[in-house]
Amino acid sequence: MTPRLPALRIGPYPVDPAVVLAPMAGITNVAFRTLCREFGSPTSLYVCEMITARAIVERDAKTMEMITFGADEHPRSMQLYTVDPATTAEAVRIIVGEDRADHIDMNFGCPVPKVTRKGGGAALPYKRGLFRNIVSAAVRAAGDVPVTVKFRVGIDEEHITYLDAGRIAEGEGARAVALHARTAAQRYSGEADWSRIARLKEAVTSIPVLGNGDIFSAADALKMVEQTGCDGVVVGRGCLGRPWLFRELHAAFTGAPIPDGPSLGEVGRILTRHAELLADHLGEDKGLRDLRKHMAWYLRGFPIGASLRQRFALVSGLAELADLVGELEPDVPYPADAEGPRGRQGSPGRVVLPDGWLDDPEDTAVPVGAELMHSGG
Ligand SMILES: Cc1cc2nc3c(=O)[nH]c(=O)nc-3n(C[C@H](O)[C@H](O)[C@H](O)COP(=O)(O)O)c2cc1C
Predict the structure, then answer these.
(1) Cβ contacts of residue 340 below 8 Å, gap of 6+?
(2) Is residue 110 among the annotated active site residues?
(3) What CATH code is carried by the domain that includes residue 314?
(4) Would the CB of 249 count as within 6 Å of ligand 1?
(5) Which atom of ligand 1 is nearest to the CA of 27?
(6) Residue 338 CB: number of other CB atoms within 10 A?
(7) Cα separation of 30 and 90, whole Å?
(8) Claim to verify: residue 249 and residue 314 sit in the same structural domain
(9) pLDDT score recorded for residue 377
């Protein structure tokens, strides 16, 4: 039986089905979001790449360009990386005052050493007072624009923060929380512990709780809802090179039969569409270069031979892509071994923190040097 997903609202917006494209730096630009929306529901939620508050305040040209949405994209959902309540408020005032987005998600899940070493990303919720001040600053500056908060389980198994983070975000007026059910020390390795999503759902009762981690198929999404009672699912790596996963998720949550994966001919058409959207957004040269990182994901498991695979991975123009797509055998069905985990996995590692970071969780001091200028991770 299809698990019943209660109607999800994030502030004023219905999210139906309750499926969210996870923010992914270097991936979820306007082209990829458009493609996912074409397969999924226009009323699901598709979050942009991470944008840093400092870069907005400085009006960094590249960052301002990254805050690009499709003409009919609604709500325009952006993700903010931030470590300082004052910069947060200033950045949110710019976003809202200049009508640049309809929803702001806050990133407290980044496990990258260069970020945690300074106290940013997944290190930050350990400082409960500072975390509270940042969320509060964002919510107050955002006015009617809903703010949501995304975080991990904690720094590591000895420093678990997600239940406090959830309650604090709820208390400060966040409109939903999302949990990537791994610690920062796990990075992307091992398995997400979905039982923690269930625990968070028990702790946070007045706003939606979204579950994230290791949804690689529509069946995984149904299982997460069934096992955790979460109000919606956030899907990241599962849709790398598989934007049609949104078609499958839509079917699963509306009780329709889950369609088969695309044939090789269809994959050729889909990656051509992706290329065209990227060329519109970035220009043909940059757009096709950006597409290269998606090629191995799109073609995974299809028997096309090493040489053609290599030429796809180096494609540099739309005409060349059309020639390559013309060489694909259109009727090859979607391969079973393209299923399962994909995207980065890596290995666990100790989380590097600033000196003395764990001494006082109530300390509200803004960490020095943790602001990032570079949007997109
Ligand atoms: C390439 C890549 C980039 C990511 N960038 C961000 C980001 O900018 N902001 C964020 O909150 N999470 C980011 N994440 C984490 C995802 O949003 C998500 O939480 C994580 O991948 C777990 O979900 P999954 O198992 O469905 O992939 C990124 C993940 C990947 C693989």
Answers:
(1) 216
(2) yes
(3) 1.10.1200
(4) no
(5) 1
(6) 17
(7) 24
(8) no
(9) 52
Residue 328 alpha carbon to ligand 1 centre in Å: 31
**Ligand 1, atom 28: nearest CA belongs to which residue?**
24
Residue with tokens 């999210």, as numbered in its chain: 15
Return the ligand 1 atom nearest residue 107 CA. 11
The answer to the question of whether 237 is labelled as a binding residue is yes
Which residue in the block uniquely carries the two structure tokens 């730096």? 25
Q: What is the pLDDT of residue 368?
A: 87
Q: C-alpha dihedral over 82, 88, 91, 93, to 10 degrees?
A: 150
Last residue of a domain, one of 191, 219, 253: 253
- Is residue 246 domain-resident? yes
Maximum alpha-carbon separation in the chain: 61
Cβ(245) – ligand 1 distance below 6 Å: no
Q: Quick one: pLDDT at residue 234?
A: 98
Write the CATH number for 212.
Answer: 3.20.20.70
User: Is the domain of 162 the same as that of 270?
Assistant: no
Confidence (pTM): 0.97
Residue 24, marked binder: yes
- pLDDT computed for residue 222 by the predictor: 97
Rg, C-alpha atoms of the chain: 20
Where the chain has pLDDT below 70, the residues are: 1-6, 376-377
Q: Are 158 and 122 in contact (CB under 8 A)?
A: no
Ligand 1 atom with the smallest distance to the CA of 212 is 23
281 is in an annotated binding site: no
